[in-house]
């Protein structure tokens, strides 16, 4: 498929003209990064192929993901990721890291383009991170929530087919394939069967405030660890305790991977073969 046609389709389908994002903390001072990305922070990151013969989807563009693509010795492919940077969980430092220059150089040599959608993929919709996680859990989606900005709602309110918070925590663990963590700030039962989900790094105070207003007391997200050096996570837990909101964490990666898995269907329907590449989850997120 002509790469420009595919990029244009993504642009329109995910309404990039109304979206905002910020990856200004990336190392952007090199010739491998597409010029428009340096101010827009979404969409095409590396423009290396005129034709796209296959798409690989991933949650983070980690080195291991790129190594796997390199190992397959393919050209004219697109890496589609939810994030613009790789991720390694850290208790102290910044968890995101740049794609190394030698990897960017190799991508150009092998005609591997890179396209990312962060906020546009979080935005409530068919392929969004929270919608995809809710579907994987088998929960019935009722409505969107979690107003991120004027154009974006990144979470969902769901109806659970169970009444126990512990049962829900076990369902989350089985679905993501590893332990989940429960912060039992509220009652052990799920009030009215209502559960909120905001995949990824959803431990921000404004989320708990919105849940309290909606009288919802069970919340699933990815990153839940209280970080002494990052006050919003501490305030998030204080508010969750004050309002009696049970919090279930299942790691940044694992709560967002289902969206990138579902995107293989999007690309297949567009006429391009697509494959999801498994990344790494970190229990340190919890």
Automatic annotation (TrEMBL):
Gene3D superfamilies: NIF3 (NGG1p interacting factor 3)-like (3.40.1390.30). It holds the Pfam family DUF34_NIF3. Keywords: Metal-binding. Signal peptide: none annotated. The keyword tRNA processing does not apply. Belongs to the GTP cyclohydrolase I type 2/NIF3 family. This is GTP cyclohydrolase 1 type 2 homolog.
